[in-house]
Write a structure and sequence with these properties.
Blueprint lengths: L1 H4 L28 E2 L7 E2 L1 H21 L8 H29 L1 H16 L15 H21 L4 H6 L9 H13 L1 H35 L4 H40 L5
Antiparallel strand pairs: 1-2
Helix pairs in contact: 2-3, 2-4, 3-4, 3-9, 4-9, 5-8, 5-9, 8-9
């Protein structure tokens, strides 16, 4: 984070005071490292590399944690079992029951760990930005969640899923003129949008705050010096506090994303559908 923050401080001039520049949206649009086949839209940036690393880390974590299961688990197996048990007990079974919970457990587990590992890169040194802080990953996961919701509803009630979703029973037919468009927007349009934006915005804001505090620390301490160093101590303390808070947000957003996916599945497989 310190190395990234250093780029936000204008170089010293001989006759001008140093100028502090806060983080900007350009943080999330780094230059291309590699352009595949010479095509700009297929370019790979630093954030893409972080996403690749996070994906490999998820696969290795789940594979290494479950490949040689023992009655008396080692530390790594215990960690994997703790994460898998958390998703199974607190998300899948709590909302969907044992039968449907076990049925959709693989997708819920994948979503939880993908979001968690992508989020946590935001506080790892030399990465310093979450893989979910650009729209591609949140949108992809939201579409997977949305697709699972549609699949669950059609599988449960092939003929009546869309009908019951758009035309709830017990409503006088003239009221459908108002209710049906609202149900269409809230159920089939708003859900993937809100899933995407909630995760994206949380991770973007978290990154900007961390860069701001650590950049301010370097600016106060190295560029201004003197009594400004007292402010550097304060901004550094806030930076570490927000780092801990960002860890909490990373875990919480993974939980919320998987939880909402389970809620949508539960609504799709409800008896009225």
């Amino acid at each position: 984070m310190f190395s990234q923050a250093a780029t936000l401080i204008a170089p010293l001039a001989t006759d001008e005071p140093p100028v502090f520049h806060g983080p900007s949206i350009s943080e999330f649009f780094p230059p291309a490292i590699v352009e595949l086949f010479g095509l700009e839209w297929l370019s790979i940036t630093r954030i893409n590399l972080i996403q690749f690393i996070a994906t490999i880390a998820v696969v290795l974590f789940l594979w290494l944690g479950t490949r040689n299961m023992r009655v008396v688990p080692g530390r790594f197996q215990s960690l994997a079992e703790m994460g898998l048990g958390f998703v199974r007990t607190n998300i899948a079974h709590d909302l969907l029951g044992k039968k449907d919970g076990d049925r959709f457990l693989p997708i819920l587990t994948t979503i939880f760990f993908m979001v968690l590992f992508m989020n946590i890169t935001g506080i790892i040194p030399f990465m310093n930005i979450a893989g979910t802080s650009v729209i591609g990953v949140p949108l992809l996961l939201a579409l997977i969640s949305y697709g699972t919701f549609i699949y669950a509803g059609i599988k449960k009630s092939p003929k009546n899923f869309f009908k019951n979703s758009l035309f709830p029973s017990g409503v006088p037919w003239p009221i459908y003129i108002i209710v049906t468009p609202i149900e269409l927007i809230s159920t089939f349009i708003i859900r993937p949008v809100t899933l995407t934006l909630r995760l994206l915005m949380n991770m973007m804001v978290g990154h900007l705050l961390l860069v701001l505090f650590f950049a301010a620390t370097q600016f106060f301490l190295l560029d201004l010096g003197g009594w400004w160093s007292a402010l550097a101590a304060g901004s550094l303390a806030f930076g570490f506090v927000f780092t801990l808070f960002e860890i909490l947000v990373a875990v919480l957003q993974a939980y919320v994303f998987a939880l909402l996916t389970a809620v949508y599945i539960q609504l799709a497989v409800a008896e009225e559908h």
